[in-house]
């Protein structure tokens, strides 16, 4: 009589599980939060999806960043495009999510969720590079320009559109061979160590560079290291940066759609030759552009 006994026990367990589920005020458990890509590494962009039916607002915190979610077209699924900085340490982390609802006394937190997320090692390479000495040891005049550039960038990254401006997946900015150089630890002239926080495309001078997605051009000007640089704000802290242009075709404040011409690639700034350096930034974190290009966002918005 082993069979029926097992059946009774599993039926009892099943009913317990069901009653536990029904007792919850909202269908909002671990399985209803998903991250894509699922395997999270330093440098991963992450599409975070939360099911929160009836929510007025959803926000969160992860690794010192505040995350503002936006509702999908069904108003049941909420999304955030976030990520893990290329320099983030591996190990456990906690994604906190708060689901807000409207009540008689105003907005209140209906559900708080702590989602454990492991940051896995990313295995980036180490490379050596030789550039003109002035880029490693800039003279006082050049240092003044570098400081002025830093101020401009700080100002630009301090404010971002309060809603996502992108629509659908991100597209490669050029028709040119990409490299897997993101995250490479670089030694400049055997001295200055830096991490390559973007993706290089082997674009000959004059290659048309296009907007990867819709947004607002927040910077379109020459900078010391970046050369002729174009930065697009895609909203909620997501930016794409294109560097070393020979010619810029857009103006600061201009709204662009995916595929719009930003300019022509070149070899301005700190370079060893013509190429497009393309970077993805989220709230100060640099993310792997190749992974963003692989992220399917067509059904998100
Ligand atoms: Zn580069």
Number of strands: 22
Mean pLDDT: 89
Low-confidence stretches: 1-30
Shape: globular
| Helix fraction by DSSP (H/I, runs of at least 4) | 10-25%
Order of helices and strands: HEEEEEEEEEHEEEEEEEEEEEEEH
Walk me through the structure:
The chain has 301 residues and is an alpha+beta fold. The protein has 3 helices and 22 strands. The termini are far apart. The N terminus is likely disordered. The chain binds zinc ion. The site of zinc ion has 4 residues, from loops.
Keywords:
single chain; 301 residues; alpha+beta; 8-stranded antiparallel sheet; 4-stranded antiparallel sheet; 3 helices; 22 strands; globular; binds zinc ion
Summarize the structure.
The chain is an alpha+beta fold and 301 residues long.
Task: Detail the topology: elements first, then pairings.
Blueprint: H1 2-23, E1 33-36, E2 45-51, E3 57-62, E4 65-68, E5 70-71, E6 77-83, E7 91-103, E8 106-119, E9 126-129, H2 140-158, E10 177-178, E11 185-188, E12 192-195, E13 199-202, E14 208-210, E15 215-223, E16 227-233, E17 238-245, E18 247-248, E19 255-256, E20 261-264, E21 276-282, E22 285-287, H3 289-294
Bound molecules: zinc ion.
Zinc ion is lined by residues 196, 198, 200, 277.
